[in-house]
UniProtKB/TrEMBL annotation:
Keywords attached to this entry: ATP-binding, Kinase, Nucleotide-binding, Transferase
Catalytic reaction list: D-ribulose 5-phosphate + ATP = D-ribulose 1,5-bisphosphate + ADP + H(+)
Native source species: Bradyrhizobium denitrificans
Protein name in the entry: Phosphoribulokinase
EC number: 2.7.1.19
InterPro entries in UniProt: P-loop_NTPase (IPR027417), PRK (IPR006082), PRK/URK (IPR006083)
Enzyme class: transferase
UniProt similarity note: Belongs to the phosphoribulokinase family.
Pfam families recorded: PRK
Length: 295
């Protein structure tokens, strides 16, 4: 926990929708006049695309069938932990971008599959927002989760996550459905061992559940829309959450457990704004008070 320099971590698998959720955070930051710096989790991959391919082959030849981008060892997690620690202590740190496609290549001036140079965060920010695969990892050696003040899980049920991944990778990253299916299969071991445990560390999980048939996610012709889904919102610690207010403000929502509410898919953005805005304001107000007291 950092307090003077708060960190929010949005965690989800590839295709879960963390970039989409980041957009909601950006809107809240803009509306509330909060200066944020951000990290895309893929920036902390250990290998560029060509080196990852070589590393995968090397491990495969040695009998390792479990290695993937989801694996802890495929990412610079000690470096990420250091950046979280440094931001928490002094508001400083650095990041870079992993360039996925031609559009990003154009924006960053680096070919697809490569990293940009490391760059320091802008000075004087109020908050750090991480969005990616490993923002709530806690193992014996790596304690990223301990540095984040608010941890959010973005976890569609798995058929929907796969549909989102297949469609996004085909539409904007130029992969075939078969190639994406192979990647999903290869990542399954690390999905279970490295990704899922983080959703017990997160403070709030947003789980999108389709209400249309997704039995064969690999042939789905479109992503179920917001109107064709519900979102289960689960609070790790429900104390202090004003459930009657939320249920009253979000039409057609209901409590499904003492720590969970369900909202219609097209109310996700509203639900996030109602739930997250006061939490973000509390973090920023507290950090400003501490900064004033220590200056
Ligand atoms: N709530 C939603 N309703 C409808 N579609 C969604 C929703 N959230 C995400 N999607 C769609 O799912 C796909 C993947 O979303 P997004 O790019 O945000 O995933 P991601 O978690 O950032 O993936 P990666 O980490 O691999 O970049 C996109 O096509 C996006 O439009
Ligand atoms: O979204 C991802 C992980 O979150 C990508 O799969 C990862 O960044 C590697 O990209 P690529 O396989 O296109 O080089």
């Amino acid at each position: 926990m950092s307090e003077q320099h708060p960190i929010i971590s949005v965690v989800g698998s590839s295709g879960a929708g963390t970039s989409t959720v980041k957009h909601t955070f950006d809107q809240i930051f803009r509306r509330e006049g909060i200066k944020a710096v951000s990290i895309e989790g893929d920036a902390f991959h250990k290998f560029d695309r060509a080196s990852m391919k070589a590393e995968l082959q090397r491990r495969y030849d040695a009998g390792d069938r479990t290695f993937s981008h989801f694996s802890f060892e495929a990412n610079e997690l000690s470096e990420l932990e250091k950046v979280f620690a440094s931001y928490g202590a002094t508001g400083t740190g650095r990041t870079r971008h992993y360039v996925h496609d031609d559009e990003e290549a154009e924006r960053y001036g680096v070919p697809p599959g490569r990293f940009t140079e490391w760059e320091d965060f802008d000075k004087g920010s109020d908050i750090l927002l991480y969005e990616g695969l490993h923002g709530a990892v806690r193992t014996q050696d790596i304690r990223i989760a301990d540095h984040a003040d608010l941890k959010i899980g973005v976890v569609p049920v798995i058929n929907l996550e796969w549909i989102q991944k297949v469609h996004r990778d085909k539409a904007s990253r130029g992969y075939t459905a078969e190639a994406v299916t192979d990647v999903i299969l290869r990542r399954m071991h690390a999905y279970v061992h490295c990704i899922c445990p983080q959703f017990s560390e997160t403070d709030i999980n947003f789980q999108r559940v389709p209400v249309v048939d997704t039995s064969n996610p690999f042939i789905a012709r479109w992503i179920p829309t917001a109107g064709e889904s519900l979102v289960v919102i689960r609070f790790k610690n429900p104390r202090g959450i004003d459930f009657p207010y939320l249920v009253q403000m979000i039409r057609d929502s209901w409590m499904s457990r003492a720590n969970s509410i369900v909202v219609p898919g097209d109310k996700l953005d509203l639900a996030m704004q109602l739930i997250l805005t006061p939490m973000i304001l509390r973090l920023v107000d507290q950090s400003k008070r501490l900064k004033r007291a220590s200056s």
